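Action item from last week, closing it out:
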Amino acid sequence: MKRPPWAVLALALVLVGGSLTVVSRPSPEGPRYITDDQGRAIILHGFNTAGSTKSDPDAMPWIEEQDVENEYERMGTNFVRFLLQWSALEPEPGQYDEKYLDAVAERVSWYAERDYHVLLDMHQDLWGQGITEAGRVGNGAPEWATHTDGLTVEEQEQWELVYLEPGTMRSFDHFWNTTGEHSELMSHYVRAWRHVADRFSGEPAVIGYDLMNEPWGGTLQGPEFERGPLAELYRRSITAIRTVDNDSWIFVEPQAVGVNWGLPSALPPLDDPREGKARIVYAPHIYPLPMDLGKAYGRGEHGGGDDGRIGGSESSRVWIDRSISLWRRNVLVTADRLEAPIVLGEFGLDTSSPGAMEYVERMLALTDEIGAGRAYWSNDLDGWGPWLGRADGEEGEGAKPGPLAEVMNRPYPRAIAGEPLAVHYDEPAKTLTVSFAEKNDGSVTGPTEIYVPEREFPEGGIISSSDPEGSWAAEWDAARRVWKVESAPYLQEHELVVSPAN
């Protein structure tokens, strides 16, 4: 029986006890940041690479090296969330495919040569291809780790509803050992992560590991799932990774259903056994509920009425904005509880839908506001991404940019030599303002780096500082379109402003 999309909303209400109440207090300490080996705060802006990985026979994204160069040339990104598939990594229990990891390493090198930070993401949707005989739905888990116990899995018009199919639920229940029958599955997964970390621990471009994409608890949901088996998986994986990699950042996601829409997460604090300060990152996703139900961000779209029901006379943009506000508040609360920086691991939509570019601009501004990194879903050639297709239809020629590429290509600080206070881009004025505090402990050794696009900032535009004249210096790297700024170390706060030359 096909379930209507409203079943998804009903499930979300069950997960939080029938309430949409959120905790609205902000983080008392403000945002935290990922730092590099020079002690600078790293601002991560980029894409997921790529959804095409899920259906490729070799589990590789569609890109070639030229496409990585094109992405930087068109959008100046410095970050990629690179999809891995457990099924390709461990095709048989305990046997790892080194040729697959070689192929991943080759693509990581493409990004490394262009100073990107690479996040390796163990991706799954609907568990894995093995949940159906045809293998048309699901990706991630290998067939040997899939146990539906003969329960059915029917494809659904709204793909997320396949999570509710009996065979999908049972596969997840076995992984989390809710059934008590397959405790070995989580152990295999943890050891697979240790193998990946061992392989890439010496690669400076790999900034970290995203332990599981959009976790789903099967029959175990809400706080019971997040505080129970999901936290157990994270603790075991963190401990295993730290035996071979003490430096990389470990990214953890909340339960996807509900939290992606803005509802609270119950993910508990996670200890990091590494030597030195913990390196745990909170990496939620956002797909506002009205959008999941087919609504667009267009001003003329109607999505809710005065009685609070989606589907009345009120603009769907109002409801989407409400979802975004809930998400913002609850993400800050969870990040505070985890004492972790925030990276938005996924956000995106059909770029041809009404108001799509305004939605993207809203999310870019929001992540700047809360000090979060971001990775758009995705860089595919599918109508969601920034490309219209390959130039001349030939491989190796790169891809033609679409409207999203222009919106994503805006100035931002790639690295900040201190404690970030605020990052604000004034779209009408095309002016970027970066404020930060000096660290007096000697932990920062590199300059602040600010990327600016050629379109509005030929030859870098104009850069100014609140520091007294002669106490600071700026160097323009024309090849990479980056300002490198050395600020006066004796001042406690600095403000840099980059604006067009005319």
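Closing note: The longest strand covers residues 419-426.
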